[in-house]
Amino acid sequence: MDLSTGMQKMSVGQQPVGRGRGVACLTCKGICSGFQPHSWRKACVLCKCSQEDHAPSSDSEDDRKMGRLLTDSRYAHLTTKVKGGDGLRVYKRNRMIITHPVVSRKDPTFNTITYDWAPPGLTQKLAILYMELLPEEKRPVTGTEGALYRRRQLMRQLPVYDQDAAQCHRMSEAEATAMTLFVKSYKQEALGVGEKNGKKSSEEQQESRPTANGTLGDCCKKSPYHCDRCGDLAAEDGPVVYAEQAGYERLWHPTCFVCAECGEALVDLVYFWKDGVLLCGRHYCQRGRPRCAGCDELIFTEDYQRGADGLAWHKDHFCCWECGQSLSTQCSCNLAKSPLKRGQRRPFKDHYCKAVVHCPVSDEIPQALDSHSSTLPFYLRLMVLCDFPLMG
């Protein structure tokens, strides 16, 4: 079996008109005629599913976003300048192609599997083992659900509007300056990503320890290393993941290298280290700044709205989806076909967590949305449908 790795050739073109306008919804399954972006919500005005549910990005867009994230960090070597791109850098995404010979009566043929992303710097044995450890539905094989899952996680975990003020809606100069400082800080202090080869100190070389910075390496057969998340012993000669800022003595199984908040695998091994835990970009940023529940962007002003449920909002985004009226008072929209009787529930499906939230006007306490879903605009829709104001 042959294995070869290479970098996808990058090209920089114009952004798609309307940021994915017309792309089919992955949640509505044909009900939505195509993505029609809201002016400031990260959602479709037709089906009200999120931009992420339509997955409107492309490889080139994702590589530009990753290039922007890694630029001006210690991982800038994982990017490359684009010819004629006016200094723009893009991600040197590592792809992997595995070729299996197929024996037949006729001339030999080959079955080729292409991965949209693979950890760089691995031997053939470790590269294959790493992919086999992942759930089949999450393996980024080109053209499969796994590749789509990776793309959606790139959008979810590393929103472009968490990196670039130009991607945010009507941000003032003071807010843009504050965001620039925030981004610069996390690039220097918290950002980590898997590397092809890391430097070792002389002491580490004597101990034959693997490299750091999220690097994957062989676990020594005689070393009783335990996974920092599950506590189990790392498999002999198996791939393990290290995070530089966590220290060389800590490691993770590939499937345990996940965000401490949402539990999702850290996409492309990009992690943020804060308060002794691994976080994805989204949840790292949310620990530093409030996130607007309406537009999903970080808030860089102290003049914002805080609802009775604890969610944060830009003041001009604290409004009904349908009529735009402020939710400081009860919304005048009457979208419910019939009023709820006391004790009844109105189920509401959260497209990300598949959770059911109970109507807050019932006798039962509503199920609290976790940090993975509380930033979504769908919570606002629930309140509007229940004619229930978000202010206490």
Automatic annotation (TrEMBL):
The keyword NAD does not apply. Residues 194-213 are annotated as: Disordered. Its main location: cytoplasm. PROSITE patterns: LIM_DOMAIN_1, LIM_DOMAIN_2, PET. InterPro entries: PET_domain, PET_testin, Pk/Esn/Tes, Znf_LIM. It holds the Pfam family PET. GO terms for cellular component: cytoplasm. One of its GO terms (molecular function) is zinc ion binding. Keywords: Cytoplasm, LIM domain, Metal-binding, Repeat, Zinc. The keyword Lipid metabolism does not apply. It is found in: Cytoplasm. Residues 225-290 form the LIM zinc-binding domain. Residues 196-207 have a biased composition (Basic and acidic residues). Residues 96-205 form the PET domain. It comes from the Eukaryota. This is LIM and cysteine-rich domains 1.
